[in-house]
Amino acid sequence: MNAQVVAIDGKKGAEMALPAQFAEAYRPDLIRRAFLSERSFTYQPKGNYPMAGRNYTAEYYGRRHAWRQTINTGRSRLPRVKIPGGRSGRVLTVPHATHGTRAHPPKANKILKERINIKEKNYAIRSAIAATGVKELVEKRGHKFEQAIAFPIIADTALEGIKKAKDAKAAFVAFGFEQDIERAHDARTMRSGRARLRRGGYRTPSSVLVVIGKDSGIWKAARNLPGVDVVSVEKLTVELLCPGGEAGRLTVWTKDAVEKLSAENLFM
Q1: What is the pLDDT of residues 128-180, one digit of tens each?
Q2: CA 166 to CA 242: how far, in whole Å?
């Protein structure tokens, strides 16, 4: 497979050969599994206090405890609080009692992380890489771009040296991504409820992903553009390539990143 290298001003240059990762079979089931595995590592364990609802003297007394029995006294046979004088108080500790324990509370020792084999994970990343070069999958995700663009999009290494946000935006406009950046900007919404206190309080749709070989300024230049992410090729994840577990993110690969992907045989 060959792809044409595009300069930061949008002009097409020479062609270059693509590595084998771009020819991998499309496996949406494996991509989804790897995505859920990565997401599970961000879950925070939660659980109740083991003695919640049990820090009482309540205890059930049967027939053999004649001085405190509840049998044949017109009361339910349930754990009751001990009261001086051999009497029994109110019902506690059982789930259906006031201030009682929960029937099946969340356990802090529950295993939340979903493991995946390294070969499966690499296969999913290769499949996600190949999906970035399929125009139909990129359109299906809802990305907006000029129809004349040829996929996969390989940019000149000069893109990594951009240091200003306006220059980065100008490069994306030259690539034909202006509508997609506007889409991410217009669809940025505030989270509801307590969620607005987390992760900046806003939800921003994913837009362009820039995969680089070396950061020479592009990360700081593009970080304020809505929905744009910049990542080094060796740090690629399924979550970055397939936000929400759906393959086909609008991705720009620099020439240096593609060469490193081939030379170091990454994710193989």
Answers
A1: 999 999 999 999 999 999 988 889 999 999 999 999 999 999 999 999 999 99
A2: 27
CA dist 81 and 242 (Å) reads 57
Residue length of the chain: 268
Dihedral angle at the C-alpha atoms of 236, 239, 245, 250, nearest 10 degrees? -60
- Given a contact cutoff of 8 angstroms between Cβ atoms, the answer to whether 188 and 199 are in contact is no
Element spanning 82, H or E: strand 80-83
Task: Determine contact, residues 257/209, Cβ cutoff 8 Å.
Answer: no
Paired with 230 in beta bridges are: 210
Radius of gyration of the chain (CA): 29
* Predicted model pTM: 0.83
Q: Which CA distances in Å does 36 have to 30, 32, 39, 244, 247?
A: 10, 6, 5, 9, 13
**Is 16 exposed, middle or buried, given 0-12, 13-18 or 19+ CB atoms closer than 10 A?**
middle
- Between β-strands 229-232 and 251-254, what pairing exists: parallel, antiparallel or unpaired? unpaired
Query: Is the Cβ–Cβ distance between 134 and 190 less than 8 Å?
Result: no
Contact 82, 73 (CB under 8 A): no
Helix (H, G, I), strand (E, B) or coil at 184: helix
The burial class, CB within 10 Å (0-12 / 13-18 / 19+), for 236 is buried
Q: Which residues of 70-80 are buried (b: 16+ CB within 10 A; e: fewer)?
A: beeeeeeebbb
> Helices 165-175 and 178-186 sit at what angle, rounded to 10 degrees?
120
Q: Which residues of 87-97 are buried (b: 16+ CB within 10 A; e: fewer)?
A: ebeebbbeeeb
Contact (CB, 8 A) for 61 and 79? no
